[in-house]
Amino acid sequence: MFKDYGNITSGEEEKASLPLHLPTTSNSIIALVFGAYHAIELSKPFLAWSLSSKASELCQSLGYHRATPVDQDTAEDVQLKRLLFWTTYFIDKSLSLRLGRATTIPDWTITTPRPSVTDPHQQPVMAYFVLWVETARCQGNIYEMLYSPDATAQPVHVLQARVQRLVTDLQDLEKATVMTNRRWLQHAKDKSGDDLLDFFASSDETLRLSLLTLVYRAAPHTGSTATFNADCVRAARATLDSHKNCVAIMGSSSRAFAPTYFQWTILFAPFVPYIVIFCHVIETQDEADLQRLGDFVASMEPAAHSSEATSKTHGLFQALYDIAFRCTELRTMSNECGRGSGDPHMDWFLESVGIVTSGQEMGGEQTHVSGSLNSFDMATESAAHGARNSSEAENHHDGLRALACMGHEAELEAWLHNNEFMP
């Protein structure tokens, strides 16, 4: 039955023809959930949000979020209602973080039991479904507690406490994953194959580490001059290393996992680890981290054209890698010479991405010129195609100091988060 609904809602015309007022039935919820899943696979998160929001409305209208009296429904009915509700919850909470929107299912309204790793599951898929629901709960909490408008206005001590709570939640999720794997992994591999389960395990770890990076990124600064704290950088490195391991698993399998992986792991939540490592390379010229950036970009190439969103993300990350590589190269040359590069094209490029050259120092003070962060577009173009000739560099010289000097990596991150180029 579920497969039939999935086929019905996979076409654009079918989704477009869904009526505004759907029957308040479980069948409507099933259709909406499958439509939302398909929209995510097509890199259409806003459409997925519209469909999941309607499914959420129907679930709550039918009382699926409430505990059901034991004698009111059959065991099969109770199981179906809970499955539909928690599937809708999974999509809602995940997209809440992805799109920066308030959840439509507040946790304090839910009285139906939350799935647990200690439940007496009969099938591996339901055991792992528990982990996906818990991951989604963490995603919703990350937005609500750290990145929502209300959260950003909280005092430092409140944010610090929230960061620690969310770190603990993600650590508990890791422990639950270990427990589930110990009980079900081999059984699931016997049914579905080693490569599929290894892929899911690795991709889930990558997503969890990406969320951990996002949590640490919101931690208040405690006197460090670095853009990101050490925990955030370590989590970002672990994420890219886990991603590399997942890519190796996909490469050794005959199944086409790449499109699913990029839609449900890299694009499903804000993938900040790459940005964290990029900014860290700009600050420190760490060659190992630069290699991580290069490996990540190369790993995206096989799936770069599977969707418009993936193509855009690959193009942006490629441009950022080119910038990081060029800046590291120029910084090394500058350090060896004990001065600026001596090449006006190189100096222009350094200044365009916020690296102070000798020509910017006046009277012992560094010149900081603020401007629109949109000028960074020109810097990325230079990274991909080489510096312009000297006359063009002169024409754009003043407009490309938006990121002047250290400390503006955070502004760069904000630009990347808000820029329409991002999917």
UniProtKB/TrEMBL annotation:
Domain spans labelled Xylanolytic transcriptional activator regulatory: 48-121
InterPro entries: AtrR-like, XnlR_reg_dom
SMART domains: Fungal_trans
Iron keyword on record: no
The entry's keywords: Membrane, Nucleus, Transmembrane, Transmembrane helix
MF (Gene Ontology): DNA binding; DNA-binding transcription factor activity; zinc ion binding
Keyword Nucleus applies: yes
Residues that span the membrane, as ranges: 261-282
Signal sequence coordinates: none
Pfam families (alphabetical): Fungal_trans (PF04082)
GO terms under biological process: DNA-templated transcription
Protein name in the entry: Xylanolytic transcriptional activator regulatory domain-containing protein
UniProt source species: Colletotrichum simmondsii
